[in-house]
Specification:
This protein is mostly helical. The chain contains four helices and no strands. Helix 2 packs across helix 3. InterPro entries: Cro/C1-type_HTH, Lambda_DNA-bd_dom_sf.
């Protein structure tokens, strides 16, 4: 799992489910700004945070 693959999965999830960035940020314990920068490719997230995002996405599908 890479930052790039999780970023693309997250973008797809946000579009398909109408979820806002701040919902994801709150669920994994980081700032909304961090999620925004991650989605813009300006910030990398730790392996732990990437795993948390993937788990959240997979639970919702």
């Amino acid at each position: 799992m890479t930052n790039e693959s999780v970023k693309e999965n997250l973008k797809d999830y946000l579009l398909k489910h109408g979820v806002r960035n701040n919902f994801i940020a709150e669920k994994i314990g980081i700032s909304n700004t961090s999620i925004c920068l991650f989605l813009q490719g300006k910030r990398l997230l730790s392996e732990d945070k990437l795993n948390q995002i993937e788990e959240l996405i997979n639970k919702s599908y």
